[in-house]
Specification:
By secondary structure, the protein is an all-beta fold. 0% of the residues lie in helices and 37% in strands. It has one domain (2-81): EutN/Ccml (OB fold (Dihydrolipoamide Acetyltransferase, E2P), Beta Barrel), CATH 2.40.50. It contains no helices and five strands. A five-stranded mixed β-barrel has the order 1-2-3-5-4. It starts with a strand and ends in an 8-residue tail after the last strand.
């Protein structure tokens, strides 16, 4: 799983027909303290996330196992919205 912050949306007027009703969001991986920790990625939103929210993303074959994504051409899917992160060090 990837911890990320939603930073925008992606609009695609033409895309695979299996993705027509799905929202695409632009996210940036972050560490547990919210600091940028990777490159941007486009993920299919399955939980109605919004800009600025911290989310959980699955990628690869796991993204295609998310409800409604079976046999869809996706490599990343948002599967959760993070309410809080607690680190015990």
């Amino acid at each position: 799983m990837i911890l990320a912050k939603v930073v925008g949306t992606v609009v695609a007027t033409r895309k695979d027909e299996r993705l027509v009703s799905h929202k695409l969001l632009l996210a940036r991986p972050v560490d547990v303290r919210g600091q940028v920790d990777g490159n941007y990625l486009v993920a299919v939103d399955t939980v109605d996330a919004g800009s600025g929210e911290t989310v959980l993303i699955v990628s690869g074959s796991s993204a295609r196992m998310v409800a409604g994504m079976k046999d869809c051409p996706v490599d990343a899917a948002i599967v959760g919205i993070v309410d809080a992160i607690e680190v015990n060090e």
